[in-house]
Structures are given as C-alpha cells and as structure tokens.
Write a structure and sequence with these properties.
- This protein is an alpha+beta fold.
- It folds into two domains: 152 residues, Ribosomal Protein S5, domain 2, CATH 3.30.230; 105 residues, GHMP kinase, C-terminal domain (Alpha-Beta Plaits).
- The chain has seven helices and 15 strands.
- Strands 1, 2, 3, 4, 5, 6, 7, 8, 10, 11 and 15 form an eleven-stranded mixed beta sheet that branches.
C-alpha cells in the first residue's frame, strides 16, 4: 500500500497561559498543503522502518509511537510491518511531516484491519499534538492540547509560498525558550478575513535571529507579509488562486527548500500500488 502524507501550515497559533497535563494549551487554524511524503507499507515478519532508505531503530519516531499506541489500544493485534518513508517534507520546519506520517499509519491500520481508534487525547500524549489534526484529514481549528479538532468550512482555493531556511528549529527548544521569555502579545494580521499570526515568532527569532532577515528579504521580494508555521522555521505567504508568483533562487535567500503550492482538502491519500 502506498500512502501520500501532506504537510500543513498553521495560519495562526495562540499559546494560552497555563499547562494541561504538562502540555501547552494552544489554539490554531491549520490547513493541509500540497507537499508530500510517500509511505509504502506492507506486512512483514517484524517491524522494519526506513526513512529515505536508512533503517531506523529509534523508537522515538512518530511511526514507532503510532504502531505502539495502536497495539496498546488493540491488544490482540499481532501484525508487523515494513514501512518505507520517502521524506520530502523538511524536518524541524513546523510543517508537520512527522505528525502526518504517524497519523497516516494510525488511519491505515484502523481502516484496513478494522481496529479501534485511540482517543485524540491519548494520541496527543503518546504520539504528538498535531497528529489528531492529520487523522481528521481536513482543514481545522485545533485547541486544548491538540485533542479538540473542529473542521474549518472555508473552501476558498489558496496558493501558498513555503520557504524553509537551512536551519531547522526544535519544537522542544522553542517551547522551553517561550516559557523562559514569556513574550508579549503577537501582532495580528488579516488576509481575506483569515487571521495570520504566531505567538512563537518572537521566541524563534531569539533562537535564530537570521530568520527575521530571511522573512524581511522574502517580504521585500514579494511585497507580501510572511508568517511562520508552527514552531518554525518554515515561512509562508498566501496568494489568490489566479495570482502569478515568481520563482526565486533558494541560495539567494539562504533556503534549503522553496515551493509554490496550494491548500488541499485532505491531508493524505492511499492506493494499492
């Protein structure tokens, strides 16, 4: 079975005061976008997981965690799998590649083997806070610690520029620094009635000052505001569907990845190839 798993962008991100079960309380409007990892999964005598052809034994990946939570939720399920992931979504970018992979495995197993779906709160605590969004597959508002998912009904087509700097950012490090800094309220923008802001922006720039320079250079080139997705370091800007968008040289802007893509309606698809 072949599965395409998408990236996402956080159109906005609020970090609420106080913790819930040692997790930050958040609220965010999130949309899937057309950048994909490819997963090929088949039954095997034992679990074997490969990322870009390299075999991983690290039980901390979201795929390992997703297999574990499914087995804990379905004790009689005894299948093992060979899983090969062709990673195209940049890591440590705030685009949700790992969470998307994990959600695809959970949905695949529950659908194809008629297994019980773990609760979203258990998924957040044991796999990752973005995973319920990807399990749900649709554009959505998430809240709580990621376990509350409400579909967004905005069906407008949108083009998206995604620019990923060479340096990635650790989600754990960003949130630790955020707690230390306790930054003030973030400036909010609006584009076609879509609210755009990120409460982690000032923290991310504190850790990675060049990120602000990259953002300013992109804004000068496109005459558009750019925003950070998730905990970074990916930057994005929104365009009307019919707008012409100029390609840029990634090296000129010190980027490792640049894409002109679009909002999509579903976070992944699968076929029997």
């Amino acid at each position: 079975m072949k599965i395409l798993t998408s990236a996402k962008i956080n159109l906005n991100l609020t970090i609420h005061k106080g913790l819930q079960d040692n997790f930050h309380r958040i609220e965010s409007d999130i949309i899937p976008v057309g950048i994909f990892d490819e997963i090929v999964i088949k039954e095997s005598g034992k679990d074997q997981i490969y990322f870009n052809k390299d075999k991983l034994n690290d039980a901390l990946t979201t795929i390992h965690k997703s297999l574990s939570i499914i087995r804990n939720c379905n004790p009689s399920f005894d299948k093992s799998f060979e899983i090969k992931v062709d990673k195209q979504i940049p890591i440590e970018s705030g685009l949700g590649g790992g969470s998307s992979n994990g959600a695809a495995i959970i949905n695949f197993l529950c659908s194809n083997y008629e297994l019980s779906m773990p609760s979203y709160i258990d998924v957040v605590k044991n796999v990752g806070s973005d995973v319920p969004f990807f399990i749900n597959k649709q554009p959505a508002t998430i809240s709580g610690i990621g376990e509350i998912v409400v579909n967004l009904n905005d069906t407008r087509p949108i083009k998206v520029i995604i620019a990923v700097p060479k340096k990635g950012l650790s989600t754990k490090e960003i949130f630790e620094k955020y707690d230390e800094m306790k930054p003030k309220n973030t400036k909010k923008y609006s584009w076609n009635d879509i609210s755009l802001f990120n409460d982690l922006w000032n923290t991310s720039v504190e850790i990675y000052p060049e990120l602000n320079t990259i953002k300013q250079n992109l804004e000068d080139r496109y005459n558009k505001n750019f925003f950070m997705s998730g905990s970074g370091s990916a930057l994005f800007s929104l365009f009307e569907e019919n707008e012409e968008i100029e390609e840029i040289d990634s090296k000129e802007f010190n980027l490792k990845y640049f894409s002109i893509t679009k909002k999509i309606d579903c976070s992944f698809s699968q076929n029997d190839d």
